[in-house]
Amino acid sequence: MIPKIKRTITSLLPVDDSREGECNGCGDCCKLPFRCAFLKESAKGRYTCSIYKVRPPNCRKFPRSRKQWETVKENCGYSFPDVGIRVEN
Ligand code: SF4
Known about the structure:
Elements: H1 2-9, E1 20-21, E2 39-41, E3 47-49, H2 57-60, H3 66-70, E4 78-79
Antiparallel strand pairs: 1-4, 2-3
The structure holds iron/sulfur cluster.
């Protein structure tokens, strides 16, 4: 639960400039650390957010940093190039 609290507090910080790619809707970040109540799964296994237009900053900006991305990197459509790695604040 501590990572979730930290993610919420730091969500007011900007997204790291080195982030590349785009969300592919895998839904992995919507299950950290527990599955979000607003996450919906279609019969075809695709995920959607039922409050997408008003989702909070920690969802809107995820992954805001390389450290956040490390928790979902297997399926996430975003990436952080190895060059120019900055230390997470
Ligand atoms: S983990 Fe990445 S690709 Fe998957 S839903 Fe979250 S932001 Fe989108």
